[in-house]
Amino acid sequence: MSSFRLLVSIVPHNKAELISDAAVAAGSFGGTVAMGRGISANAFVAALGIGDSMKDIVYILTEEQNHSAIYKAIVDVCLKERRGFGMMFCIAADSLMKAGNVTHGSLQGDEGMANDVERDLITVILNKGYADDAMAAARKAGAGGGTVINARGTAREDDAKFFGMHIVPEKEMLCIVVEHEKKDAVLEAIRTLPCLSEPGSGIAFCSGVNEFVLLGKKN
Fold it and tell me: Once rounded to an integer, what is the mean pLDDT over residues 159-166?
């Protein structure tokens, strides 16, 4: 059975097509693009508000046999761009549903990826307006920069209502890639934030990633 991998590329806004075109030419069937906001790794620059920039987050699901070619094609096409143009990493995916059919991947392939994990993707979902606070705490614990994606919560039956309509609070999803040995410290720093002290105020989870690479010129 096939294994699947999710390639995630974070690049400047309006550059998603560069990634997707290279991937399609190498055998991909396409991908999904989300728009986010990058937060600088430099705390002083971020505090001034001049380190933020709009980002495209490109998600491409690849099959094992095409993965290397697609990965290389994306890296190669970005060599023409400036240094520090963006980043790309890979997350294991063990199932694929397409047109109502579910294909399960090889567990052996996924375990192999897990053994190679050097970094983790920390995803924090919290109420809108607090992503910068979480990023500041993460940075103090050793993280670099991060990317924020706007989102919204889903209403439950016991959620508050206004004129009979569910109030669905706006959310921010903060994504941070950190070295594996820094994961626990970063999570603890985020956990102790006052904005996350109330039940239902946010969640955080981790995914092991590998094949991390900075996109753009190498020199």
Answer: 63
